[in-house]
Amino acid sequence: MRDFIEVCGRHPFATGLFALIGIFGLLFSFFDFAVSQSQNAENTAQTEQLASSVGRVQDSVDDIGRDAEDRSGFVPILARPAPIVDDNLSFPARYQGRKISWIRDHVPEAFPNVWMELISIESSADRVYVQTAPYLIIDVVDVRPISDDLAGYYGGERGAAAEIRYFVGSVTAQKGWHYAPLVDSMNGEYRDDIDFFSLAPHEPEEFILGVDFAAGYLFSYRIGVHYKFEGEHGVHWVTDIRRSGLPTRPMPLTQYADNDYTPGTHPDLEFQNSANIAQRSERNEAQARRGILFNPRQIEGRAEPDTL
């Protein structure tokens, strides 16, 4: 082997051949390094692309979750309750002599006897029909006896209302839900021929609620609509908390002038038969609970009744 190496070292051809082989080896090392770098770059790009794809899938899943959450809080009814008809007002007697307009704006203890509520509702769904029950809900959140030291204003002279969908409720001095079924506006009989109302997308309806609160108590209440949307039942509270009370004891009353008070009782007492309110309230609840497609059992006990 030593002799062979010495011969190759002395022979010019062998020396040149070994030099060429060394150069080729060096070039091959450069080529192999370049190929390795290219493969590493390609692998890195594929890894980044895979991570990007996984990220897009995760974002899509998150979007689906957010859409589901938003959908769960969707209320398919738009409601526009009219202001309370305050053609009458009871207030602490110490405010006698003040303008009634001032008392309305500055005396939070003042309250009317509410006898009618007008509610405009409209479907806010884009494609699916919304159904509503043939009754309204009057939720009494607080009730207490009316104080004695009162004065009152009565503007009266009420005309006939444009009755479209007419509901009537009688409310006893008990907290909780009371029901106002749909009635015939001409004879006051329950409308057993109507099981529900169906609203096309963005279709409006006009509801009139005639309500009779038990005299002698101050009520805090709100009004709700029982609806069904995409197979799920819910309640939409279409008013904020309102107050109503009908005093029973005589008090100074004025009708047209801010300073002309005469002793008397609230004129609305003439139209109320307090002995029948409890019976009418029981009949109204029985009428609501006889429904099959809509029944209070479908919505009772919900912690958040405004969401599906």
Q: How many H/I helices? A: 4
Strand content: 25-35%
Point out poorly predicted stretches: 61-71, 303-308
User: What is the number of independent domains?
Assistant: 2
Q: Could you give a short account of the major beta sheet?
A: 6 strands, antiparallel
Helicity level? 25-40%
Helix and strand topology:
Blueprint: H1 2-10, H2 12-72, E1 77-81, E2 88-92, H3 100-106, E3 116-123, E4 130-145, E5 150-154, E6 165-171, E7 176-181, E8 197-199, E9 204-213, E10 217-229, E11 232-237, E12 242-245, E13 251-254, E14 262-264, H4 274-289
Parallel strand pairs: 5-13, 6-9
Antiparallel strand pairs: 1-3, 2-5, 3-9, 4-7, 4-8, 4-10, 10-11, 10-12, 13-14
Folded structure, characterized:
Residues 279-308 are annotated as: Disordered. The chain crosses the membrane at residues 12-31. Residues 299-308 have a biased composition (Basic and acidic residues). Keywords: Membrane, Transmembrane, Transmembrane helix. With 308 residues, the chain is an alpha+beta fold. It folds into two domains: 2-70; 77-298, no CATH class. Helix content is 30%, strand content 31%. The chain has four helices and 14 strands. The strands form three sheets. Strands 4, 7, 8, 10, 11 and 12 form a six-stranded antiparallel beta sheet that branches. It has a four-stranded mixed beta sheet with strand order 1-3-9-6. A hairpin with a 7-residue loop joins strand 13 and strand 14 (262-264). The termini are far apart. The model is unreliable at 61-71 and 303-308 (pLDDT under 50).
